[in-house]
Amino acid sequence: MKNLIITLAFLLFGISVNAQSTDETATKKRKTGWFVTAEYSTMFLKDHIGQAPGFSMGLKLLKDHLKIGYFNYFRSGPINSHTVNTPLPNGLTYKGKSSVDLRADHGAFGLMIAPSFTLRKSKIEIDFPIYIGSIGAGFYLAGDDRNTPDNRRVSDWENDLFDGKDAAFAGMTEFGVRAMFPAQINGLQWGVGVHYLTVQDWTTYVDPSGDFYNNKLRASVFVNCGSKRRD
User: Fold this and answer.
1) For the CA atoms of 95, 97, 98, 101, what is the dihedral angle to 10 degrees?
2) How far is C-alpha 47 from the geometric centre of its chain's CA atoms?
3) Which pLDDT value is given to residue 21?
4) How many domains does the chain divide into?
């Protein structure tokens, strides 16, 4: 939620600046530009569809043909109701159960590099974003199971039940293509995209294969705010 509030604040600021720009200012030559993009995406996982909000921000270089910046998106458990029923290790029980329903969450962040070009007649911008970074992801007790039987922290119970393998960090790479359409407000665009995600060497007790997020597609819708395109 904090990331979304910060992103919306950047967007509102950018819209205000661009809306007040004069034609003379807009046509001045510049070496670099800027962008802030808020997005909401659908992740096509193995047996369900997940939701993941996020944002990116950075600079536009080479006459707006290259974007470089920071990206962050996250699959939050509270907005994803899917549960994974997981047998506990032999001999362990939790509140009298030998298996528990877990929810999954993750956060991905890192460097975004996006070659970009604009179709002159339609002014539609096509981006090819490449995300290189890290992902922290895992599984956690949900619902009534978060009320632990001995009032210990739920994270302590998760570590004990899954031998410290309830979550893990790993490297991630993502390739995508996005189409951005101009809005009536100067400097504002809306768009859609499709992305292919790979996660390297991520394993947990629930998913020792590391395939939960690896080799998956996600589709995004977004709003982009930034400096005016260079002609």
Assistant:
1) -90
2) 20
3) 47
4) 1
Stated pTM of the model = 0.82
Domain that holds residue 217: 2-22+30-226
Give the pLDDT of residue 8: 47
Answer yes or no: is 231 within a domain.
no
CATH number at residue 127: 2.40.160.20
- CA distances to 39, 212, 217 from 191, rounded to whole Å, are 9, 27, 17
Mean pLDDT of 162-178: 96
- Range with the lowest mean pLDDT among 1-15, 30-44, 181-195? 1-15
Contact 162, 94 (CB under 8 A): no
Pairing state between β 167-182 and 188-200: antiparallel
In a domain? residue 7: yes
In the numeric block, which tokens belong to residue 184? 């009536």
C-alpha distances in angstroms, 41 versus 137, 148, 178, 223?
A: 17, 33, 12, 12
